[in-house]
Known about the structure:
This protein has helices at 21-25, 41-53, 66-69, 97-109, 120-124, 127-137, 169-177, 229-242, 252-271, 280-290, 304-311, 333-343, 355-361, 364-370, 386-395, 410-417, 430-439; strands spanning 31-34, 60-63, 113-117, 141-143, 158-161, 180-184, 204-209, 223-226, 296-299, 321-323, 349-354, 376-381, 420-424, 444-449. By secondary structure, it is α/β, with parallel strands linked by helices.
Amino acid sequence: MYTASGSSRGSLQNRLTELDQSALFRPLTKWNAEIDHADRLPETVGAAFRAMTSGKPGAAQLGPPFDTQKDAAVEPDDIWAQPGHATYPSWRSAPDPSAMTAAVSALVSAKQPLIICGGGVVISGAEAELASVAERLGAPVATTISGQGSLPESHPLCKGVVGSNGGTMPTRAAVEQSDLVMFIGCRAGSVTTERWRFPTRGTRVLHIDADPQVIGAIYRTEVALVGDARLALHAIDAELVRRAAEVKRGNGAARVARALQEKFSAFDRLDTSGEARVLPERIVATLNEVLPSDAVVVCDPGTPCPYFSALYRFRESSRHFISNRAHGALGYSMSGAIGAHFGRPQAKCVSVMGDGSFAFTAGELETIVRLRLPIMMIVVSNSVFGWIKAGQKTGFQQRCFSVDFTRTDHAKVAEAYGVRTWRVADPSMLQEAFAAAGEHGGPMLVDVVTQPLHEASAPVSEWIA
């Protein structure tokens, strides 16, 4: 992030727009710096790229005051970064070989191992290595929300999302039944583990992560592998090949099939229930039919996130689902889909948001129209801050405060900006509207009047995790 600030000589002098930007961005970035003199620009830019791409990748922020920006002391050729820092992760490091050997010994001794992947597998580009290890062991693979895409959900060993947001009882059972869990690129936080109950504290745990501070933070870890996920999984796979006689391939595919059959039978009953209102399940089911397999879906963290995490079938590996779930900030998906389009312009990019989220970010419709971006936007319109109301309903004896609001015609709002729109309140019209929107070549928005989240059978085990 490049954030301009006031004068480098204006600190604490109450100048107009003066703000300590380093302090503002520090909680959100891996590395940040204020450039108080132009001759520091080359070294600082290089340091920013090194910090962003190496170790555990993360955001960097540079804050050059406006008077520094006007300083002509730096030539363009003076600003450079290592060629390898154009992509991430750069400068990969492998785990200790002895730890890798110990991890394989633990894996082959387990009767029902389970792999839980966070976002680190996709960040590392370790999807092929993960598939090879899982197939060699016959071990099911579950993911966090950000870990989706580690394994295609069409793979017979992919169990889907676990945890309190997007997990279901059948996927929780897979964690309960496992005698060893291997976390990969995953913090094992409160949502993934349902507040550290699944797996239990006594379960055998292996943990692969580029950040040593993550490993052992909650769970007593039998083997810690500090390093890049792709290098770690490649080494584990090679050791499994070498020790093939010890490997007893598990029945993970059968376990996954049973769990998914149970999960999706409940989903299908709701999708085809004949309910007069549009249920969230119907939205997901219809998009599963309409969208291409390489679509990128960007969800806000309210109503859309748990439904798409649990029930949308991402049929390809790599990053096809994006949500800013961790901090729950509404208004992300519309802007996030703009970024997704520029990152992957050949793919259909879909923004799914609640009506509360739409209100936070509707001004970006002008950006989308001005740039003629073919983004498909879907508003789940239920006239409520649904996640908050559901939390108040379950946690405060149904005493709700400041969560309901009047319904907006989001289609008319978007149409005023120049967006092609559809409005759907009848479930039987959903397929036609989504199909037509999918074929439209410019900005498009479908406003769907739905069942409120606090009345729905959402795949959420607890609202305040």
